[in-house]
Amino acid sequence: MKVLVVDDEIDIVSLFKQKFKKEINAEQAEFYFVHSAEEAIEYIKGLHRPELVLILSDINMPGMNGLELLKILKAEIPRLTVFMITAYDDENKHRLAMEYGADKYLTKPIDFEELKAAMHEFNNANNNLMME
Amino acid sequence: MKNPLRNRGLAFRMAILIFLSITLVLAVIYTYMYNSSATIIKKNITANAENLTRQTVSQIEAVLLSVQKIPSNLAEVIMHHDLSIEEAMQLMQVMVKNNSEVFGMALAFEPYYVKKDSFYFSPYFYKSGDAVKLMYLGNAEYNYFIMDWYQITKELGAPYWTEPYFDEGGGNILMATYSCPVFTERNGAKTFIGVLTADISLEWLHEIVSSIKIYKSGYAYLISKTGKIVTHPIKSMIMNESIFSLAEENNFAVLREVGRQMIRGKESFAEVEYTNVATGKKSWLSYAPIKVNGWSLGVVYPVDEMMADVNNLFMNVFLFGLSGTLVILLIIVLISKSITKPLAGLTNAAVDLTMGNFEAHIPPVKYKDEIATLSGAFRNMRDRLSKTINDLRVTSENLKESNIKLEEYSQNLEDKVEERTVELKEKNEELDKSFNNIKTLSELGRKITSTLKISDIREIVYSAVNSLLDASVFIIMINNEKEGRLDCILSMEKSQSLDLFSVSMKEKNRFPVWCARHKKPVFMNDVDIEFIKYVPFRAAPKAGEYISSLIYLPLVVEDRLIGVISAQSFKKNAYSRQDFDIFSNLANYVAIAISNAASYEEIRKANKELKDTQAQLIQAEKMASLGQLTAGIAHEIKNPLNFINNFADLSVGLTDEIKEEIEKQVQRFEKEDYEYLIEIVGDLNQNCKKINEHGRRADSIVKGMLLHSRGKSGEMQKTDINALLAEYVSLAYHGMRAQDTSFNIKLESDYDNSLAPINVVPQNISRVFLNTVNNACYSTHEKKKERGDSFDPVVKVSTKDLGNKAEIRIRDNGKGISKENLDKIFNPFFTTKPTGKGTGLGLSLSFDIVVQEHRGELRVESTEGEFAEFIITIPKNL
User: Fold this and answer.
1) What is the pLDDT of residues B796-818, one digit of tens each?
2) Is B706 in Cβ contact with A15 (below 8 Å)?
3) Poorest-confidence range of A49-53, B73-77, B122-126, B540-544?
4) Residues of chain B positioned with their CB less than 8 A from the CB of A59
5) pTM for the full model?
6) CB count, 10 Å around CB of B535?
């Protein structure tokens, strides 16, 4: 499973690498990190089958924010899976994210148990995708 | 136009008017009577004429029928009995002789029937005077075969009446003939052998017809089938004129039409207006057919004669009416005279009176009628007038005498004026005293009206009142409209302050209540006697002794009762009118001053309320901006918290790994070192757990802060407050029990069932209920822990419908809130719970929800150690 994490906080890399140490070592998951929405778009564009990549995106970022990123990505690649992970758990942002097609809306501090369960779900669906 | 009656006397006018009315009535009656009588009479005449005409016709017909029978019977005899000529002739002779109506009879045979050589054979018997003569008809001049009576009868083979004609053959008279054919019967075959005739003389018919008398100039006439006149009173017209020739000559179209109807055998008795040919007068005509021979009888009725009776009758009626009217006129004139004569007498007397003659003669009255009454009254008037004038004369003389006396009095008056002047001086001095009183009063007025405190007013008034009047007892009472009573604010008796008291406005028998209710003064100088003017009996005094004189005055400003003021004395007759007036003035000042003070008090109160509201608004505003601020901060804190919590969590795992690793390599360490390492790692592990735990705490605080900043998070909807409150009370209670099994309190509730559902945001209001009930439970539970069994914790919730608002109270008998904390409890982050038990945001959030979102109020009342009560009011019109 390939996961692209979009967050302007550098520490996120260390946190994810430690939290998913087991999965990474077992080569069950590959993590890629970018620190802005713009970088994320560039990265996705370079992929052969972007829909096989799970995207985890923050909302509040300098430059383009996560919601705009979500909107653009979903408009271009509707089969892409995007989880939004944000400190904002207000209704407005939640509603907007769902409107733009987010597949999950998780709040910070990140509950990794919850995140792992959601990823597992994606992975099952993804295996089907890979068959295509 | 001038009315000619206007200038005439009363009698004349009355007579003329009555006379005209009667005449008019009579004329109407007369006209009606004439018309109806004429109709009746006409009907009678018509009926008479009808009878007369029919009678005549049947008379003539009887004659004609009897004539007819003679030849008819004889012809039968000849035919059936084969009579000889001689026998037949003998019978004929006898018949002519014996039948007066038959003029003559002929038996005419066919040529050569009797004698072969004789062309004519026709014996004819006829009357000549008293004798009956025989002659034989038929010769060259008189060829009877071509005569109507023979030829037509022969042709018809049946009997036939001829037209009247002048017979030249025998009788040489006007006649009409009835002819019968004579047959012989041989072997059943009838053979015509001749004609048997009977003649009637028209002279004789004329006599019958003219014997019919119709009034004086009426008459009857006969016309033949062709209209020829057969009988007529004018003999020259017989056989010379026909009804049609008469119509032509006189140009009577009516007569022509009548002729036509007559020869057609019609009959009529209508009034055909027809001018009598004989007399030239207007007449009516009736006619009827004589069916035997086809002639017609006409009867002429003279109209004037027929109507003579009617006209006579009416002439008589008119004459009677006229004479009656004249008699009535006479009576009217007499009555009018009898009325106007005494009136004229009275009029003359009145004229005399106006000329000043009081001895004027008033005519005597014969009858006891209205005139008599008038006359009597007039007489009385004359007598009184005469007396009054006499009185006037006397009065005029008295007046002269009075004038003289008046001059005398005038002299006396001057003396008295001097006396009065002295008195006036004394009064002047009194006035000076009054002026001083007024001065005192006005100074007092200025002083008290510029005072805004009721206690000051009281003192100033009491200190001044004794210098103005005897105020052994002095009372000021204020109208307490709300409670419906008078509250005493000052009660002095002999310079001693008495206990303050209140009088209910219902105690109508008390003087202050009477004064207040009527807004009128009570003023008595002997209460024992005068009290009855105001109340039915004397009530015992509320304070102090019975008094003898008193004044109660209402304090009224702009028609509004402020209170009452009273001065009382133990002496009788303590107050003069002047005292009363002064006290009234004082009362006016007091009323204004108290009213001002009350207004000032109200303004002060309103001002305080305004300030409170302002403070609340500022608090609300503070909360709002704080909310926005915290939202921003909260988000920013959440990001670092994310790392703190998660890294701490990771570190816990890492320390566990280190511990495992150290334990694996235990042989590589000294025992002391090993123990030291394990201890450090254990502390590190503990620290990381603490970091994670406090990170979570921070997170929950931030979450609470964020609740503040959430904008519109819910929709208003009609909610049953009682049900919602009950639900959350139970939720809070069970929540507490779940946390602490020792928790046990008594829950009481008092829900107002008349409270209908109101518009609120239920999820937010329920949060308020939950917070406040939680706090109440916590507080009572804490107190229970302190005090033990001696304390029964109680939480009571209640609702109440306040009309336009709903009120919810949550009361507990827990620890209460200290005075210094009362102001702070709604501040965010303020909590009295131990660290970690409360975020300090519950009440702050509740305040936001109630005040900002629902525009209601959230108040708290508390005594430390006793109770705390949270009062929520929510307006209904949201």
Assistant:
1) 999 999 989 999 999 999 999 99
2) no
3) B540-544
4) none
5) 0.36
6) 16
Partner residue facing A9 (CB), from B639, B641, B699: B639
Convert the pLDDT of each residue in B612-637 to its tens digit: 878 777 776 776 666 667 777 777 88
Interatomic CA distance for residues A128 and A79, integer angstroms: 13
Q: State how far the Cα of B171 lies from the Cα of B126, in Å rounded to an integer.
A: 7
Query: For residue B623, what pLDDT is reported?
Result: 66
Tokens for B568, please give them. Answer: 């009382």
Distance CA B805, CA B800 (A): 9
Contact yes or no for A109 and B706 at CB 8 A: no
Chain pair A-B, CB pairs under 8 angstroms = 39
In a domain, B340, yes or no: no
Provide the CATH number for the domain around residue B558.
3.30.450.40
**Residue B196, domain extent:** 82-204
Cross-chain Cβ contact A87/B695 below 8 Å: no
B691 is a domain residue: yes
Residues of B in contact with A110 (CB under 8 A): 642, 646
Buried b / exposed e over B829-861, threshold 16 CB at 10 Å, is eebbeeeeebbbbbbbbbbbbbbebbebbbebe
Check whether B437 has a pLDDT greater than 60: yes
Give the closest of B631, B644, B713 to A91, CB-based: B713
- Predicted confidence band of residue A31 (pLDDT cuts 50, 70, 90): very high
- From chain B, the residues in CB contact with A87 under 8 A are 635-636, 638-639, 642
CATH topology of domain A33-111: Rossmann fold (3.40.50)
Per CB-CB distance under 8 Å, the chain B contacts of A18 are 650
Return the closest-CA partner of residue A84 out of A69, A92, B640: A69
Backbone φ and ψ of B267, nearest 5°: -135, 145
Give the count of alpha carbons within 13 A of B802, CB side only.
16
Mean pLDDT of all residues in B842-863: 89
Contact criterion met (CB < 8 Å) for B646 and A109 = yes
| Residue B250 pLDDT greater than 70, yes or no | yes
Contact between B641 and A108 using a beta-carbon 8 Å cutoff: yes
Mean pLDDT within B649-658: 92
Closest CA in chain B for residue A86 = B639
Whether residue B639 and residue A108 make contact (CB cut-off 8 A), yes or no, is: yes
The answer to whether A13 contacts chain B (CB < 8 Å) is no
Chain A residue with CA closest to B709: the answer is A90
Query: In which element (H, E) is residue A76 found?
Result: helix A66-76
- Give the per-residue pLDDT at B298: 86
Asked if residue B556 and residue B469 are part of one domain, the reply reads yes
Of the three residues B654, B688, B709, the one that is the final residue of a domain is: B709
The chain A residue lying nearest B645, using CA atoms, is: A109
